[in-house]
Amino acid sequence: MIMELSGRQDPVTDVLLLKCKVNKTLDELSRSLEIFKEMKALESIRSGVRSPFYWGGIDAIMLELISTIKAMWEASEQFSIEIIQTHYGEKIHGSI
Questions:
Q1: Is 6 a member of any domain?
Q2: Domain of life, per the record (predicted)?
Q3: What is the pLDDT of residue 36?
Q4: Is residue 64 part of a domain?
Q5: At what angle are helices 52-87 and 11-45 packed, to 10 degrees?
Q6: Is 19 inside a domain boundary?
Q7: Is this prediction's pTM over 0.90?
Q8: Residue 2, in any domain of the structure
Q9: Number of folded domains in the chain?
Q10: Alpha carbon distances (Å) from 24 to 6, 17, 84
């Protein structure tokens, strides 16, 4: 993800907009994950042809996707904290 600073507002506003983008992306990833889970559940209860190799690959992707979702959220939270602390002088002058 590329962060685009507007230059028209303070860094805190920019980082809050970034967090909104990250959260939107995470919501989309979560929805995709739920769709995969539903598809797998439907296929597992059908009596027709099952695709264990296909779902094995999907299971691996799901684990990576969950890990990515958590990492993106944690990184955006940490980045937000760093920007806010720096902007309001806590990193430079100590707590206000």
A1: no
A2: Eukaryota
A3: 77
A4: yes
A5: 160
A6: yes
A7: no
A8: no
A9: 1
A10: 19, 11, 21
